[in-house]
Specification:
The chain has 167 residues and is an alpha+beta fold. Helices cover 18% and strands 41% of the residues.
């Protein structure tokens, strides 16, 4: 169903994948995990390793799962499956079983990370670093409009340890 590839073999444009198509950030164990839709983040090379960086507001249910687990996954889907991402981005795992409601089929990596059978690209990341967005460091004060409630994101940088594509 999935083939492992090198991160450098990813064919898709990261800006399109994350900003336009979106992704599911998932953390936890097979018995207790949560997922959320995200459209902020990126892929790159830092500290001599391939990395993904993601942003999560502290009030999001997935935040505590990313905080308490050493790994997280990023799952990307076909554009025709955007309804899954829309649902997971507009409902909280505190209130509904998003996995059941969307018909997602969770799979587990050797590291115990969760991803989804329906994905067409999956990145498994080990956390390397986190930091909280500091509004005092905004070079462009217009960025503040993204935070009317002053609920600043936490940024996570993860080393991409595995990458899979749908066969």
């Amino acid at each position: 169903m999935f083939s492992e590839i090198k991160v450098s073999e990813i064919q898709e444009n990261a800006i399109d994948l994350i900003g336009d198509q979106w992704m599911l950030i998932t953390a936890g164990t097979k018995d207790h995990f949560n997922t959320m839709t995200a459209s902020w983040g990126g892929l790159g090379f830092l500290w001599n390793v391939p990395v993904a960086f993601i942003f999560i507001r502290p009030q999001r249910h997935t935040y505590k799962f990313v905080e308490s687990n050493p790994f997280f996954t990023l799952s990307f889907f076909e554009p025709k499956q955007k309804n899954i991402l829309t649902y997971c981005g507009s409902h909280s795992g505190k209130d509904v079983d998003k996995i059941k409601e969307c018909g997602l089929i969770p799979l587990e990596t050797k590291n115990g990370s969760i991803y989804f059978e329906q994905a067409n690209l999956v990145l498994e990341c080990s956390k390397l670093y986190h930091d909280d967005i500091d509004p005092g460091h905004f070079a462009d004060k217009m960025i503040q409009r993204n935070y009317p409630n002053k609920d600043y994101h936490r940024m996570y940088i993860g080393k991409i340890v595995k990458c899979w594509v749908r066969k």
